[in-house]
Amino acid sequence: MSRSNDPGHFFQTDAALSTSARKAQKSSNKKGNPVKLASKILDVAVDPLDGDAVYVAEAAGTVKRVSVEGEGKRILATYTGPEAPLACVAVSPKTDGKGATIYAGSWDKTIWTWDAATKTPGHRFRAHADFVKALLLVSLQGTPLLISGSADATIIIWDAASGVKLHTLKGHTRGVLDLALDTATYDPAGGEVVFFSAGSDREIRRWVVTPTSAREDKAEGYPMLPHETSVDALVFDSDGDLWSASADKTVKCLSRSRAWEEDTSLEHPDYARDVVVDEVGGWIVTACRDEEVRVWERGSGKLHHVFEGHFEEVTALVLLGDSAW
């Protein structure tokens, strides 16, 4: 029996056909100087050594270093090995005296690493029981730490240089979707690191790591429940306030000085996927499942502009210099 992968050979609703036609037409636009990749982009991280480049985690199981400027060669390097989608990526400028190291969390339950310059694979971190969804790199008294969050609802603290597992944290009842360093309290030479986690259980939790221990902050007010459903992204601004993006179609600012009370809520027509804060321009930039990127006035919360160009959901944002990409 012959088989076909041609979508025209299968029954589709009028709405599905209309959506396919719209996306096909939209895919040819050149807004934002696009770089076309072979598969869905699941995460983006800034190259810490080159402000004009980013690292992209793909559903095809590769990490690519991509130039966001110019018209010439845009894909600068490709890092291979995984056979499953890569959900998150983080880059350390230096680890244990070496050059830049790339870390990528995979659907195969492991964290892959590469030497950024040589593209040689390094340690492979194994301990999670499900997809690795979020990564965070920090330094604690000179020791580089990698923090990973997984769909198995756990957070693991690793020695980033050796790949040794140091601590496992439990608290979320469903998958961990994002991790954010509390930059207002962070001192690499200090005695502790504080970070927050967001999950598909709609909770935001606070954690404290010291050279000898790791624990959840269970003080009054934690975990935080500002959203109605999954929290996809977290980021702190320069005032120490916490911004969160959620599948409840909102991006919210939670005020540190008012015990994380909601200060601002930015309404979206579909799931809010990511948020970044432009401290210089005074803008909040958000990514949405409706294929659009929105720019909001930070002070008033007023919508300033909507960028159109993507023809699938916008999954991640990063800030390069004074602008978001």
UniProtKB/TrEMBL annotation:
Q: Does the keyword Repeat apply?
A: yes
Q: Name one GO cellular component term.
A: nuclear SCF ubiquitin ligase complex
Q: One Pfam family of this protein, by short name?
A: WD40
**Region: Disordered, residue numbers:** 1-33
Q: Name one GO molecular function term.
A: ubiquitin binding
Gene3D superfamilies with a match to the protein in the record: YVTN repeat-like/Quinoprotein amine dehydrogenase
The name under which this protein is listed is: WD40 repeat-like protein
State the organism named in the record.
Answer: Pseudopithomyces chartarum
